[in-house]
Amino acid sequence: MNDAPRPGRADAGRTGAGEAGPTFAPLYRQIRELLVRGLQSGEWKPGEAIPSEVELAARYRVSQGTVRKAIDELAAANLVVRRQGRGTFVASHREVRTQFRFLRLRPDDTAADVADAAQPGVASESGQGMVMTSRVLECRRLRAPSEVARALALRSGEAVVLIRRILEADGRPTVLDEIWLPGSRFRGLSAERVDAWHGPLYALFETEFGTRMIRAAERLKAIAADRARARTLQVAEGSPLLLVERVSRTYADQPVELRRGYCVTDRHHYYNELS
Amino acid sequence: MNDAPRPGRADAGRTGAGEAGPTFAPLYRQIRELLVRGLQSGEWKPGEAIPSEVELAARYRVSQGTVRKAIDELAAANLVVRRQGRGTFVASHREVRTQFRFLRLRPDDTAADVADAAQPGVASESGQGMVMTSRVLECRRLRAPSEVARALALRSGEAVVLIRRILEADGRPTVLDEIWLPGSRFRGLSAERVDAWHGPLYALFETEFGTRMIRAAERLKAIAADRARARTLQVAEGSPLLLVERVSRTYADQPVELRRGYCVTDRHHYYNELS
DNA sequence: TAGTGGTCTAGACCACCGT
DNA sequence: CGGTGGTCTAGACCACTAA
């Protein structure tokens, strides 16, 4: 990162210094991006430890404090998990801590939620009993409809995979998921493969297809169940359903999943915390 | 915070050291709590600057770095806003930056949202045109129903204020809000007062009643419009509505608002980002 | 015991802001 | 210009974990 004893200059050795590009980022942000590149390239895989702070400081010729600040941001973005005395690990959807991060639907009874939620971020972790069983209705490959192509940043007509599945809670159909994935990333994906997998879908994607979902944006609407979906969810036609439309992204903000979840919210609700 | 030259001891001068209480927090966390107390007590009011980092460091006999880390956490929790070269300011619902923080309903057309959202937190700030006009239907005082009392941590039967209002977008009724507030905190609140106020409701609460909403938890459901609400919202009875139930809290996690918003989501959606 | 992340300090310099 | 937050460093010590 720097070559000689540096007199505290904040921008020594900046990438692209002096060029027309965007304003230059501080050192710790450059380090952060280098680390992200390491994660993206698979240099360090989910569940594994990244090098220690001192080692990274030596590698990049930077103080430990600077590396620390870089890692702090990665931890805040849930790309990495710190464990005192052990090291810093690449986040994985296989771990219990993180696997409920993208699952906001909860059973109503949960005494937690609105009631307590004394600790800002911690309350969400208590969501345990959420054992919904998945049943795949179909999994087929087709050409992307234009609106799916747009969401996934594909050319219209490119190959995509469509998974339709039901999530059941206590034997009751609760969520109908329609999941669109880019065909190129998910070659061998099949209904059997999904059904055989025990655990979160994102863990399957991460382990078997090397695609880690990093963040997502959701739009929620209340809609009336059409005939087909009402039937599938075993509710009356016209019943109110919560539609959760999600676009998930991996490193470099590349969209890799479009998901529409149609949720029966008689016994469940979507939980969110604002701050 | 400490008395003499301290040899790097991490827990010198801890509050309650040696007692049975919870495990002791690091220095910067104690400082953070002191600052929160200052905010809570009104020592520094919304919009005002808090003392500079060096001044606080001197006051608490701590290094600037420790104060900095404390303030970092307050900034992360949106209690405070840093402005380089100017100072650190108490967050206020009167400011444009923060006033859309608790408003997740957006018009569908928004080209942003799911489509781009290139920067995690930044995308949300673009929500500008959200100019919905408020019309108060009623504002009355009554005894808290048990379930409202529970949410607001009041004794059942204590005085509460109920505000019912309509939010209109482009002249169309879009949200029906039922807002419950503890009577004790909101003495002079009336329909006229709310109607006369231009700007976010939370800005009114903050400025006129000294109650700042810090964070909130929401539960969302899709429900069918009953006769009364359908009429108010000018939709067909049985139409799907997005019910957003929110409990807002102020300092010390005290609940001070229970709000139920019934949203027509034909032209709008609830937006959320996961990470 | 050795290695890791976590805390705290002290001091330097920078970028930005208002006067 | 002086003051503020922002970056970076170097070094000390702590708490925790695993061997």
Parts with pLDDT < 50 across at least 5 consecutive residues of chain A: 1-22, 113-128
Structure class of chain A: alpha+beta
Strand content of chain A: 25-35%
Number of strands of chain A: 11
Largest interface: A-B, 45 and 45 residues
Strand order of the largest sheet of chain A: 5-6-7-10-9-8
Oligomer: homodimer
Mean pLDDT over the full residue set of chain A? 88
Q: Ends of chain A: how far apart?
A: 36 Å
The profile of the biggest β sheet of chain A is:
6 strands, antiparallel
Radius of gyration of chain A: 22 Å
Shape of chain A: elongated
Q: How would you briefly describe this protein structure?
A:
The first copy, chain A, has helices spanning 27-41, 53-60, 64-76, 96-99, 146-151, 191-196, 201-209, 227-233, and strands at 49-50, 80-83, 87-90, 105-107, 133-143, 159-169, 172-182, 215-224, 240-249, 255-263, 268-274.
Describe the secondary-structure layout.
2 copies of one chain form a homodimer.
Chain A: H1 27-41, E1 49-50, H2 53-60, H3 64-76, E2 80-83, E3 87-90, H4 96-99, E4 105-107, E5 133-143, H5 146-151, E6 159-169, E7 172-182, H6 191-196, H7 201-209, E8 215-224, H8 227-233, E9 240-249, E10 255-263, E11 268-274
Antiparallel strand pairs in A: 1-3, 2-3, 4-11, 5-6, 6-7, 7-10, 8-9, 9-10
Helix pairs in contact in A: 1-3, 2-3
Chain B binds a DNA duplex (19 and 19 nucleotides) through residues 6-11, 26-28, 49, 52-54, 62-66, 68-69, 71, 82-88.
Describe what you observe in this structure.
Two copies of one chain form a homodimer. The first copy, chain A, is an alpha+beta fold and 275 residues long. Chain A has eight helices and eleven strands. Chain A has helices at 27-41, 53-60, 64-76, 96-99, 146-151, 191-196, 201-209, 227-233, and strands at residues 49-50, 80-83, 87-90, 105-107, 133-143, 159-169, 172-182, 215-224, 240-249, 255-263, 268-274. In chain A, the strands form three sheets. In chain A, strands 5-6-7-10-9-8 form a six-stranded antiparallel sheet. In chain A, strands 1-3-2 form a three-stranded antiparallel sheet. A two-stranded antiparallel sheet of chain A has the order 4-11. Chain A is elongated and about 65 Å long. Chain A starts with 26 loop residues before the first helix and ends with a strand. Mean pLDDT of chain A is 88; it is low at 1-22 and 113-128. Chain A binds chain B through residues 76-78, 101-102, 104, 113-115, 117-118, 120, 123, 150-151, 214-224, 238-243, 245-247, 253, 263, 265, 269-275, and chain B through 76-78, 101-102, 104, 113-115, 117-118, 120, 123, 150-151, 214-224, 238-243, 245-247, 253, 263, 265, 269-275. Strand 11 (268-274) of chain A pairs antiparallel with strand 8 (215-224) of chain B, so a sheet runs across the interface. Chain B binds a DNA duplex (19 and 19 nucleotides) through helix 3.
